[in-house]
Amino acid sequence: MPFIRVLLLCLFLSFVPPMPAIHASSETLDTTPDRQALLVLINRLGYDDLAEMPELQKLSRRGAVALMNVNTGGKRTDSNAYVTMAAGVPAKLNSKDMLAYNADEKLHDVPVSAAHAGLHGHPPGQDVLLMSLPRIARKQERWNFKASAVGLGDALQRHGLQTAVLGSSDKGNELWRPATLFTSDEKGRTPYGDVGDQLLKSDPARPYGVRTDYERMWETYRILQGQAELVVFDLADLYRVGEYRPNLTGEQFAKLRRQALREADQFIGKLAGEIDQNSLLLIASPQAPVSAQVRAEWIAPVIAAGGSMIEDSVLTSATTRREGIVSNLDVAPTLLHFLGVPKPHGMIGYPLQPTDAIGPRQLDVLKASTVWTYSNRAAVLGAVGAIIGSGLLLAVLRLFQVRTGITLGGIRVLLWTALAMPLCLYLLPLLRPSGLWEVAGGLWALYLLIAAIPFRILPFCQKLTGRLIWLSAWTILVIVVDTWQGGMLAKRGLLSYDPIVGARYYGIGNEYMGIVIGAAVLLYAALRHATRLEQRWLGRGAVAGGVLLTIFFASPALGTNTGGALTMAGTTGLCLAMQKRCKLLPTLGVLFTSLLGAAVILLLLNQPSAQPSHIGAAAGQVLSGGFDEMSRIFARKSDMFVRLLFSSVWPSLFLLLLSLFAYVLFAPGGHEKRAWQTRYPYYRTAVGGMLAGSLVGMLTNDSGIVVLGMMSLFALFPTLLIWLETETVPGGTPKRSLSLRR
């Protein structure tokens, strides 16, 4: 299985000519030393906290604001959040691995400067030193990304720009200075700054007995204004309050938190007075506050002002293509882009950009809907899965003549519900449900409108094949048109991707990619039985449809799904090969040719001038990193595939059930053989091609088990409906078609 995935990837890469870059943001830019970027990190700041920070509100009106995903390469911890934001890739790092000191501090009674000189061979200046960088370098080798934890600071210093870091997240005697990740070079050196206790004031009334000395921090910053192009501030009082919460009453915690917010806000007000077109002030929270985490609000605010930011706007980026929602991977690329430094190899985020497509006041609604989708996704899909599973179980028991007390009509309703549910879930955002009962009512209403009522009143839908054509055609049409128009339904769908999970933000996800391909094959099979079109024209139409859908998946502006393009092309070829009863070697030749065609389409559509996408980013990484980067991509995909496959017993059970289904489908036998050959002679070959194509999808997608499940839905349930329709009486004569009426 891994060998096949490597082979397919190599096939794609063999058609990619050497290019200097994939997208404009990775091209070398002239440095602009007259600019200065300020990054203010306020860990545990929530979006709702902005209401208590008047200076920050003023700043947001001068610039742009957004909700930021805080996902990492591991658990959502503070240390993982800092290193992910600094590296520009999903990363993870233990908090004990971030050991930073001022050069004049001591480490085990040895001057830090001397210890650093002993490790690296030459004495540093009055720097801030990240002493644990060798340990960090060993850890980052296991990220499956060729990126550095200090890629931002190192890139700037390599281009002659200086960096500085001010602030400490120390908790009493527990040292923790993660902001140095943003400013260090490859030797762990930050030219300017202070991360020691000189910027902390002793205060017994504060958590851990200290608080940030904002007066001294401001004075130090004014000195650095003409010396450092990037200054990073770590305002950690809010973080310390959050960490100290178990030792506080609710009233004390709220009071200390308001005090920390007020002081940080006043300091930001001072910084805001220094901002002009040649400076950028970027404020971000690496991690959400604990109170927000309890409510599943895994998003934090980010605000940008100065530079080319538009007043009273919201932020977006090529990472998300979502107005008002960005990724923590975009922070480092934004700073590099503003300072005119090319993004280092391996960093996958994109610069933040302002947009007035929506207003900042709409972020409250966007936040509420985003959190609601994330919080209720599992419950809704679990209930839908129970309905689908019940229909499957009851249909199988019926076929084995096991009495359950459920009528044949009731079983068929469950099967049709399963086939209609993906489309119902896709259209559900149109009804704007705000509670689980509204979701249940909305899905039932949509099922009535999409399936139950048309099945009763439309003459075309009085036969099983007509109903299959109706459902599959509408499923494809709605998804493709919505994606073409920007994917507004997909962005809010419960079965689609959501910004808090952060696996995908745009295009067509693996769930609906499998649904579109499965519905397309089902549509083709049903049309062969229900129309009077010449089979040769229908076959040509199927090939044309397969090509168009492959282009749809491959397009960086539409589907943006490499695995989808390969799966669609492979499934089309396999269906046609099985229809023509090709033997094994010719079938493999057709599959190879189809995948080759998909690779060419991917290449042609993802040229450097194309819209930035993760397909282009991955191709750019492979072009610059070669086989090493290709192996990293393969490792990431394989790791996700294995995790999904063995996350529970259900994927393995599903694979077993699907294998048994395929065996029964193609094994010789009296009842099944008569049903396929006398009533639906073409359907079995289409289903066989779909099942074989789903294996291509499983091997070419990181969440391949999801693709397999969605495609199998359109193979398994229509087959069960056909089997139930062709039940025979003792004499062997088929019953009246039960697919017409109950």
Automatic annotation (TrEMBL):
<feature type="transmembrane region" description="Helical">
    <location>
        <begin position="584"/>
        <end position="605"/>
    </location>
</feature>
<protein>
    <submittedName>
        <fullName>Uncharacterized protein</fullName>
    </submittedName>
</protein>
<feature type="transmembrane region" description="Helical">
    <location>
        <begin position="378"/>
        <end position="401"/>
    </location>
</feature>
<feature type="transmembrane region" description="Helical">
    <location>
        <begin position="505"/>
        <end position="525"/>
    </location>
</feature>
<feature type="transmembrane region" description="Helical">
    <location>
        <begin position="413"/>
        <end position="431"/>
    </location>
</feature>
<keyword id="KW-0732">Signal</keyword>
<feature type="transmembrane region" description="Helical">
    <location>
        <begin position="468"/>
        <end position="485"/>
    </location>
</feature>
<dbReference type="InterPro" id="IPR017850">
    <property type="entry name" value="Alkaline_phosphatase_core_sf"/>
</dbReference>
<keyword id="KW-0812">Transmembrane</keyword>
<feature type="signal peptide">
    <location>
        <begin position="1"/>
        <end position="23"/>
    </location>
</feature>
<feature type="transmembrane region" description="Helical">
    <location>
        <begin position="649"/>
        <end position="669"/>
    </location>
</feature>
<feature type="transmembrane region" description="Helical">
    <location>
        <begin position="681"/>
        <end position="699"/>
    </location>
</feature>
<keyword id="KW-1133">Transmembrane helix</keyword>
<keyword id="KW-0472">Membrane</keyword>
<feature type="transmembrane region" description="Helical">
    <location>
        <begin position="443"/>
        <end position="461"/>
    </location>
</feature>
<feature type="transmembrane region" description="Helical">
    <location>
        <begin position="705"/>
        <end position="724"/>
    </location>
</feature>
